[in-house]
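Propose amino acids for all 353 sites.
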């Protein structure tokens, strides 16, 4: 092993797609969930229940989304304490300068700043000065130089997807729904992707449909072997639990993917379902009912802004159909068809839950 490689190994700097593309991205989504998303939920509850203190707490939680994302990324990369604490300043700077695309700016810049901080950590006798100095300076300089451009690029891409969905709701309804549903089940964070692209509106509704199709779909089609524990674990937890089974027998993924290809355009073309809450909610599906809470939050915001007068019966009907009923019905239809063809059995969907 070369000297440089040995040094990187000693510093736990491992350049890999899994570490940066899965671990760090997934951690970023958790940081965003624990700040902006939870803050939005608390704020909404406080407003609806007329509890100002709850709404105020929600505002505080939402305000620290940048530092929360950066800290979560640092934890996923094994950052030493001084690096981890310094990332709070980096996250704040990147998020503030990144604008609507702040989450993507925080993700990229925090990863670089964290790894640079790890390289100098405990290498000098004045580590308490050197490590924070290097981490904060590199991260902040990158934020000043790159965050606005990264944020603009992310916003532009997200805007393009939303524009295309408005223009071609049927085709884009299928594409967005299927892709986001797949991302949700893969060890990739669909929530982080939606947040990074600020994916809301009609495209956000399609993303929600696809994610719900995966979670509810796997929950109901595997009920015969996983019973109630599996229904809860996948239905309001994550369909990612099926990844091991999917790797062993990929064909079991077809029912939920086909269901998402149907519910996506139904959401965009028939119901015009929009996600106007926090963008991260678009990629959460039925996980903790965060996706549904996001849609509701969007409705209440529109009422407050005078964009709608009330939440109608049809609004609730479309949300319930897209989130729960249609994913279950379509997935089960394909599931029974493919079992009849002998492509797989219920045992191929068994979980250890």
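Proposal:
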């Amino acid at each position: 092993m070369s000297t440089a490689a040995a040094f990187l190994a000693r510093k736990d700097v491992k350049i890999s797609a899994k570490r940066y593309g899965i671990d760090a991205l997934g951690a970023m989504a958790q940081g965003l969930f624990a700040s902006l998303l939870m803050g939005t939920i608390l704020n909404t509850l406080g407003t609806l229940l007329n509890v100002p203190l709850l709404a105020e707490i929600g505002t505080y939680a939402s305000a620290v989304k940048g530092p929360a994302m950066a800290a979560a990324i640092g934890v996923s990369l094994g950052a030493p304490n001084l690096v981890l604490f310094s990332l709070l300043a980096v996250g704040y700077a990147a998020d503030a300068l990144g604008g609507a695309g702040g989450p993507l700016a925080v993700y990229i810049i925090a990863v670089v700043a964290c790894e640079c901080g790890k390289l100098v950590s405990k290498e000098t006798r004045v580590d308490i000065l050197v490590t924070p100095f290097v981490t904060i300076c590199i991260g902040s300089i990158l934020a000043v130089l790159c965050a606005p451009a990264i944020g603009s690029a992310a916003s532009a891409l997200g805007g393009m997807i939303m524009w295309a969905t408005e223009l071609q709701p049927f085709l884009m309804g299928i594409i967005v729904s299927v892709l986001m549903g797949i991302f949700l089940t893969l060890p990739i964070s669909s929530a982080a992707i939606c947040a990074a692209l600020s994916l809301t509106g009609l495209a956000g509704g399609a993303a929600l449909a696809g994610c719900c199709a995966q979670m509810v779909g796997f929950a109901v089609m595997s009920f015969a072997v996983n019973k109630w524990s599996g229904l809860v674990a996948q239905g309001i937890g994550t369909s990612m639990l099926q990844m091991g089974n999917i790797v062993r027998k990929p064909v079991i993924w077809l029912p939920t993917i086909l269901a998402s290809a149907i519910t996506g355009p139904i959401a965009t073309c028939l119901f015009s379902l929009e996600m106007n809450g926090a963008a991260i909610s678009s990629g959460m599906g039925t996980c903790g009912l965060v996706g549904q809470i996001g849609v509701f939050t969007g409705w209440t915001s529109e009422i407050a802004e005078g964009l709608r007068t009330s939440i109608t019966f049809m609004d609730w009907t479309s949300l319930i159909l897209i989130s729960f009923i249609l994913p279950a019905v379509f997935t089960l239809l394909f599931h029974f068809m493919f079992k009849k063809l002998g492509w797989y059995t219920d045992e191929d969907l068994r979980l250890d839950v």
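The mean pLDDT is 91. Residues 20 and 111 are 8 Å apart (CA to CA).
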